[in-house]
Amino acid sequence: DTGVSQDPRHKITKRGQNVTFRCDPISEHNRLYWYRQTLGQGPEFLTYFQNEAQLEKSRLLSDRFSAERPKGSFSTLEIQRTEQGDSAMYLCASSFRQASTEAFFGQGTRLTVV
Amino acid sequence: SQKIEQNSEALNIQEGKTATLTCNYTNYSPAYLQWYRQDPGRGPVFLLLIRENEKEKRKERLKVTFDTTLKQSLFHITASQPADSATYLCALSPSGNTGKLIFGQGTTLQVKP
Question: How is B52-102 classified by DSSP, letter by letter?
Fold first, then answer.
């Protein structure tokens, strides 16, 4: 399968714990995005990478959130000291470095903080 | 403030009819707008992209229009089928060449046999 892959698909964690999600983009794509989606809402932009450089971060991304993309390949999103408000679907997408190109989304990681 | 809005109420139509979904935006000047389909528990899937200098785009049973004066896009599914039931999201790229997308909240379409 050459699509965007996310792991895990589901994560349940206790409040205050740290969690890390992984995203493997389509191999030839050099742009990678993280979005967060809550029930009944569209995805909200969190951050994006071009190759290994993190070029933009949303104000939604508090200092408890950190994302990396070492060597411009896979990416990780870590949430420290999770809160119940972090419960959401975390979506990863990748695309070519061109204007007006479609984004290819993974299946997402569903996080539940209890 | 900048907003992108879709009908939050679900759209219920009979199989075979045309579904029309609306996306309105304010305080953006997007160079293009995209439509995605999302099924429950899955990531969005790209359907169509329309540029600011295009009035209409078609793909099989899908048609998108883009009116930059009204700041509105319409998404049509003709000869709708129960398999078209899903949430449809419009998205625009606010500026620059980042590819970052701002999404509407989505409209859920239910096609009844």
Answer: TT-SEEEETTEEEEEETTTTEEEEEESS--GGG-EEEEEEE--STTS---E
CB A91 within 8 A of CB A106: yes
Q: Is the minimum CB–CB distance between B13 and chain A shorter than 8 Å?
A: no
Instruction: Give yes or no for B97 touching A (CB within 8 A).
Output: yes
Question: CA triplet A101, A45, B70: central angle to 5 degrees?
Answer: 65
The tens digit of pLDDT for each residue in B61-113 reads 999 999 999 999 999 999 999 999 999 999 998 766 778 899 999 999 999 99
Identify the three-state secondary structure at position A50.
strand
Helix (H) or strand (E) holding B112: strand B107-112
**A41:B105 CB<8 A:** yes
B105 touching A, CB under 8 A? yes
| Nearest residue, CB atoms, B105 vs list A33, A42, A56 | A42
